[in-house]
Amino acid sequence: MMFVGTGSDVGKSIIVTGLCRILKQKGYAPAPFKAQNMSLNSFVTKDGLELGRAQAVQAEAAKIDCNTEMNPVLLKPSGANKSQVILHGKPIGDQTARAYFLGNNKQYLFEEVQKAFKKLNNSYAPIVLEGAGSISELNLKHRDIVNMRMAQHANAAVYLVADIDRGGVFASVYGSIALLEEDERKLIKGIIVNKFRGDISLFEEGRKMLEELTNVPVLGVVPFAKDIYIEEEDSLGLEDKHKQFSKEKINIAVILLPYISNFTDFNRLEKDERVHVFYTRSAEDLKKADIIMIPGSKNTIADMQFLREASLAQEILNAHVQKKRIIGICGGFQMLGTSISDPHHVENDIQTIPGLGIIPAHTTMAAEKTTKQCQFTFKASDIVCSGYEIHMGVTTFEAKQQPLNTINGHAEGYLSDHCWGTYIHGIFDNSSIIDELLSDFDIQETDTTFDYKAYKEENYDKLAAHLTKHIAIDQIIKNMEL
What we know:
The chain has 482 residues and is an alpha/beta fold. A hairpin with a 5-residue loop joins strand 21 (361-378) and strand 22.
């Protein structure tokens, strides 16, 4: 089965996540698959390979380990109209959007995508495929490797997802189907109207109209559900997230870098009742924050330039003088150092740029990418924590470092009194590290035993129940078994 969209951000990823959990509950062995994903939010498999975070989340919903067959092609934007191309979990180079989408390499990539799908299909059933963007981008369609061409290769029953919240649902659904070739239209087995607000019964006439217009059944009208938490795929909307400051809580500012990556590093932190996490590009906001976090970046030099141009660099330095907590993760860790160099132009055409100079460290971008899961101990604690690394930089220190973490007996990161940096993503998924971070603040005691893994499991089940209530799941399964 495959879920495609009338456009981007219509909710395909969430629906695939929910279907993976529903099918698992019903005794199947599902696995997610997205031939090509574009995202700065990625994850690392146990084998040290990289894939889109959305497919890792979907695999988690299916209760299986993620692997790169689930997302064989990942595009990570790294500059203006430029992306790093990840194939089978490893980078194969950078390309402009024009070169990638209009070049001749798509046939090779599609062959690799087919290999990945075949391998995944030999191990799991069913495969729940996800499309990308709109299925009717006519100017790019003949080079498509992710939407209807993939559906035809898999002979998948296809379901078109439309976002009624943005308006124009009739035109988008009708137009998307009308612009398909006849053999493609035959694969469309149902329509799902997503993100409905209000009384669903008021759309009953609209459902009938859609079915008459398209000759395709509407298999679900899914209400907007604010109380279900699933990790987001991209950083859209972060700037408007949780902007109201709190006098009763510890205010944590995460700098919204232009090339922010792996912003999910802060998802668990957001759930802590002691803190208020917000995302900002304002120097005035940093003045009000108790803790400042510099997140990961896909273009560290460009984002370091942004910090200076937006007057954020000076405000970070002011905060350091005031002994506020300042934390850098991955690219943010690199920015805390004395300099960042890119002699091989891995991410940027600029050779070297000064960092913030808070940490006596120098980073050089390397051609080889580090991707691995890790277990570590934090500071002096003997509690074993887990996380993962994704970076292309090698950081050296001017003097013997005071390590933040220990991985297999080796020092990692940098620690000073009020500032620390690390290459480990997911570090705040470990409750003991959050407790240590907040230990110096005078804040009302609260229950700190929040189990993030259990919380995610609960929400996968809630999503499954929500979709089961509003989508004709039995019909989808029947179509799958034909």
